[in-house]
């Protein structure tokens, strides 16, 4: 499917889901007003241009998980190639690339994995403490002990080739894969109920409440909740992500008073931390810069992370190389993503770094990127991600 056809397909899915939503609202006014009371803009959730663009934005805010959720049920865990129904940018064929799948390291059996990884973890902790993970200070890494340098090099190598499997990658156990599927599907239905824009800032407690009150979503099961808790509390370093945890509690909330929805984008920014920064960026760089992802609370990041994990055959390490696990996203505290209008999904690829928008940003000194080309945090290069905090 080429990009144009994909856009039409995405628009069709968006339109269909909006129709369903509007229909339900008209027959369930109690729930609608319940949403409204909690600060959600439900009355404007018809087929307006804004909500339509929200859907498209959602499709694009994580292009490596490009399949709208209705298609996800068709994804076969045993056949990763089926996870991709629109072109993946540079995604290699796993079996061709490696010959055989590496033995799965099961998250439920992390103790033995931890033992084999303890050197890595402790050395990286030291590296972080020493400050050599600072993106501008890679030269110091070369002066460290050979072991530390080796560890840092291994992480940098994985960051550069983030979308392949490595022998020490951590996979979910089969029982957790089943839980991931049911949790992900429920989160997708929840997003459909709240609207893609509102879902960005939905708190976990609100999520539980809505799931319970909307029969289309259904209450999270005890097993799903335990699984979510496990994903949120497991030390992400165990599977190779070394970024900071910026939200310590799954239930951390984003105050609706502290945020503003950026017109036409379907995304929110913090009034204090980010809005002025973004407005100035648009004034300086020009109107063809767009906000492609703003605030993402824990529930939204959880949804993106689980979708990413499923799209890479439940490889948590590989998922975390291109998407911060929930609790670790700086989108939760002020960072945001930008793109060039009209570039669509390519905004989330290295192609953005070649765009005139990016070059203007660089010339104007706006480029303070969170995840550089070579970093020891375990995250791919993201030229579109703007570091604010
Ligand atoms: Zn980002």
Provide a brief overview of the structure:
It is built from 15 helices and seven strands.
Structural description of this entry:
- The chain has 389 residues and is mainly α.
- The protein has a domain of 221 residues: 2-Layer Sandwich (Muramoyl-pentapeptide Carboxypeptidase, domain 2), CATH 3.30.1380.
- It is built from 15 helices and seven strands.
- The strands form three sheets. The protein has a three-stranded antiparallel β-sheet with strand order 5-6-7, sandwiched between helices.
- A hairpin with a 4-residue loop joins strand 3 and strand 4.
- Helix 8 packs across helix 11 and helix 13 packs across helix 14.
- It is globular and about 50 Å long.
- The N terminus is likely disordered.
- The protein binds zinc ion.
- Zinc ion binds next to loops.
